[in-house]
């Protein structure tokens, strides 16, 4: 796969501690550039870092003195050291909520359950973390247009970040998306192109465009910038540990779409251990899917090492990837750490959204309903230990998936007087 | 006005530096309690503080070492010193965005324009700040039910905060609100009561309930808890100054609904000056309204000291208070500081929402469209100095007022092939 722009080698780009791209499958290394697949084996390329110069306690102090966003971890990310001075939407440092009310309902020990609430990001989903990384890579490689295919959260994140960072954006979506989702992506003023076809057609078209001269100078955040983009998920691991007082949680419950987030959280935890920022001790990672799109969960339960694709049919649309690229890596991590992969049905997703809202005041997207629902199920079937420190991820905001809970309504309707109030039994 | 609960005197409640309630009109003082109107003159009661024990530099250090939310300012708020340990939704410490792209469009000098973006709060509006205060007062006074009348943002903020803090909530809304707004408030699982009538009917009913035994033990956040609730807006002033490096901005543009937010921001700035945390120098406060509900702007321009009520008709529904209680105080502050009050029409509100989104990647609620639109108008008519440090408030999230920008849509629709892409002129 040829790099597409002028500044495409390690020598000419400054992405901080990022030293090269390395194939996850065969280990083949290539210089930093806008490439994503290994030229030897077609395996996925990942960032290889040089962290050798860091002193643990100096690094810890530097991080703690950094800004209240992901750039506090700039020394561990593929970004230049002065990244915080560049225009970006600066996501991250979202709340880690000690969820004692939820713990009580789920039978978890007091003080042991936490929700990492990524709805606090600028466009209210974890996608801001990954797009913020892609922006910096795009800048380094001299791209001027930022692009992606999307059916929702990613379109908004790319639109917002591109606007602020001064990039042109061109986002491709199925032309018949709900009007609300179109508004959320269109408001940032970039090109928002409807494709006459379904999401698969959109993706196929983007692959065509990326190999064509028309796509010259375009950074597709989750295609040719994917190795950089994906690293944004590591910041979830960093923040969780720092917010726990530089401690590893015992258990994490992470949603699975492509599986990239879960694998990068594991990578982030491993880095913290190697750097000495947290104690080296075991942790378990649990993956969460919706039953209507559960290829990894099905493979896990069947003991398979590969994932058989599914045709998604679930309200958890942000997780509805039927053929998850990182599925095999997720299976490996869940098994290696002693975790598991579980799924819940749409009714359980809705119940879990309501449970989280009424216990902790957090209104989660359907993906958050999946993780909370799966946590409950894992406790019930004995796979998750309710006496251990557990972090459940909520990766998006309920305002984005209002349809899923549209049945929620008034508890009473009364006339505007005290008699009517008393009759309704509200006193 | 009799206090309603057991713990109703200064002696028996711990609300930190809050020493008493004091009438804004006549200065009459009463003990801290769930009362809001002066028994002498019916003027509004405000919190009177005792800050005498504070050393400036110790206080600054204590604040800077505090949590990344409004409780870093606990020493300046009517809350107990250990407030950060109590369950609350912990709003605040939202981003102050240096808006260089917007500055360029508006003709403001580079580095001089900032947007204080309160859409980053837990339920995505500044209401979380005031409700968080009301919660702590409700706890101190022994209330067990939290209540309010609302048409939107406040209902969600009360529902979420009550859920997390372990209060019962009972929120009253007009029964025929849009389904989306009902879902956003109902999801937290409290009582959500539809009143057969309009917002005025809802308010009238709440006033009746508060004087009735049926309302015993109920804290209405913006009625009997209003003196505490309103103080939450001071935190906007504190954060802006701290985020500017403990400097006062030269100019602030603040939306006006009841006018309480603007008056409390002024109070917060005055407190910082008196405490020595910022230099004592002039600042100007500008008020922003929508033309369709502009009673304060009309009074300002006519040179009046009182405000004539209006019947609201604007898309900026979160600002649509036709008879703003703090209107006269706002007029006084705008004139005293050398600011002004201005309004923009609905078309200008929508344009400003789009302008902010495409320049800074911030999707604001209609109230944010009002402040950005007014800022542009104030620069055009020479009232706001584009060479001075200016902070514009965005108090809510665009996801909550999608209808206002529903016309925003696809820039092109194409077939999934490169020929169609080229024909659309997108290459």
TrEMBL record, chains A, B:
EC number: 4.2.3.1
GO function terms (MF aspect): L-serine ammonia-lyase activity; threonine deaminase activity; threonine synthase activity
Cofactor(s) this protein cannot do without: pyridoxal 5'-phosphate
Database matches in CDD domains: Thr-synth_1
Domain of life: Bacteria
One Pfam match: PALP
Key word Coiled coil present: no
GO terms of biological process kind: isoleucine biosynthetic process; L-serine catabolic process; L-threonine catabolic process; threonine biosynthetic process
Residue numbers bearing the N6-(pyridoxal phosphate)lysine modification: 127
Keywords: Lyase, Pyridoxal phosphate
Tryptophan synthase beta chain-like PALP domain residues: 91-396
InterPro entries named among the record's database cross-references: Ser/Thr_Dehydratase, Thr_synthase-like, TrpB-like_PALP, TrpB-like_PALP_sf
The keyword Lyase appears for this protein: yes
Family, as annotated: Belongs to the threonine synthase family.
Full protein name: Threonine synthase
Gene name in the database record: thrC
């Amino acid at each position: 796969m040829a790099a597409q722009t002028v500044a495409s080698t390690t020598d000419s780009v400054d992405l901080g501690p990022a030293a090269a791209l390395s194939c996850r499958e065969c280990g083949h290394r290539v210089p930093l550039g806008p490439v994503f697949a290994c030229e030897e084996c077609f395996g996925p390329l990942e960032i290889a870092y040089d962290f050798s110069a860091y002193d643990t306690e100096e690094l810890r102090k530097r991080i703690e003195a950094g800004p209240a966003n992901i750039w506090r971890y700039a020394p561990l990310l593929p970004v230049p050291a002065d990244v915080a001075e560049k225009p970006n939407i600066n996501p991250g440092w979202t709340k880690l909520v000690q969820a004692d009310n939820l713990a009580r309902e789920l039978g978890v020990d007091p003080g042991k359950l936490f929700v990492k609430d990524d709805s606090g990001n600028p466009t209210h989903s974890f996608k801001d973390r990954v797009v913020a990384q892609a922006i910096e890579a795009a800048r380094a490689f001299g791209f001027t247009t930022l692009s992606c295919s999307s059916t929702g959260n990613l379109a908004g994140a790319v639109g917002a970040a591109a606007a602020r960072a001064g990039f042109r954006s061109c986002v491709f979506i199925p032309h018949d998306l709900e009007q609300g989702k179109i508004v959320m992506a269109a408001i940032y003023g970039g090109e928002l192109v409807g494709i006459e076809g379904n999401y698969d057609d959109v993706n196929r078209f983007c692959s065509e465009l990326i190999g064509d001269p028309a796509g010259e100078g375009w950074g597709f955040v989750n295609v040719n910038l994917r190795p950089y983009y994906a690293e944004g998920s590591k910041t979830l691991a960093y923040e969780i540990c720092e917010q726990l007082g530089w401690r590893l949680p015992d258990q994490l419950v992470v949603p699975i779409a492509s599986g990239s987030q879960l694998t990068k959280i594991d990578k982030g935890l491993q880095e913290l251990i190697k750097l000495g920022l947290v104690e080296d001790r075991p942790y378990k990672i649990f993956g969460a899917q919706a039953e209507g799109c559960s290829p990894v969960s099905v493979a896990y339960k069947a003991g398979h090492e590969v994932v058989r694709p599914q045709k998604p049919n679930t309200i958890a649309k942000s997780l509805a990837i039927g053929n998850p690229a990182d599925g095999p890596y997720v299976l490996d991590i869940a098994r290696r750490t002693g975790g598991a992969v579980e799924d819940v049905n749409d009714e359980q997703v809705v119940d879990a959204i309501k449970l989280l809202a009424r216990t902790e005041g957090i209104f989660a997207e359907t993906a958050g309903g999946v993780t909370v629902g799966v946590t409950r199920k894992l406790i019930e079937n004995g796979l998750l230990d309710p006496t251990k420190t557990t972090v459940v991820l909520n990766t998006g905001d309920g305002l984005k998936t209002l349809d899923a809970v549209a049945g929620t309504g008034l508890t009473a309707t009364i006339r505007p007087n005290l008699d009517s109030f008393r009759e309704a039994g509200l006193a």
